[in-house]
Amino acid sequence: DTSRELVKRDLKNLVILDRIDNPAAIAELKAINPKVTVTFYPYDVTTPLTETTKLLKTIFAQLKTVDVLINGAGILDDHQIERTIAVNFTGLVNTTTAILDFWDKRKGGPGGVICNIGSVTGFNAIYQVPVYSASKAAVVSFTQSIAKLANVTGVTAFTVNPGITK
Length: 166
Hints:
CATH architecture of the domain at 68-160: 3-Layer(aba) Sandwich
Structural class: alpha/beta
GO molecular function, one term: alcohol dehydrogenase (NAD+) activity
CATH class of the domain at 68-160: Alpha Beta
Order of helices and strands: HEHEHEHEHHE
EC number: 1.1.1.1
Strand order of the largest sheet: 3-4-5
Largest sheet: 3 strands, parallel
Catalytic activity: a primary alcohol + NAD(+) = an aldehyde + NADH + H(+); a secondary alcohol + NAD(+) = a ketone + NADH + H(+)
Keywords: NAD, Oxidoreductase
Subunit structure: Homodimer.
């Protein structure tokens, strides 16, 4: 849904990183606005930081500039503790850290915008899903820390914290 809304805007490129290759979804996005170049790269947010950095080098080499990163990967499965933390928090930290190397003004970067997807549970834990709630609280805290460095890095960071979604 986020990608559908984005391609309706005046963008040049939309790059989607996901574990699942869905050509029909990519075709749908291209059809919404043929002026936007939609590109897909296979990516698992739980890959190590070095792999994420390599992929971003490829993307930056192709596009030259990237303005916005939306970290939207997330799962809600407290039976898979390590995976929940790896997807919801560690992967988000790695992706953010990797793109900061490209954007940080202290390193000659242009700055950028990071939108991390949190959850209302980051502020008000749901006792039935404590691991999920804690992982989203970590997202909020991490993003607040990155946001406080915006005047130094040139990178704006914020969270979107939805309630229950389908």
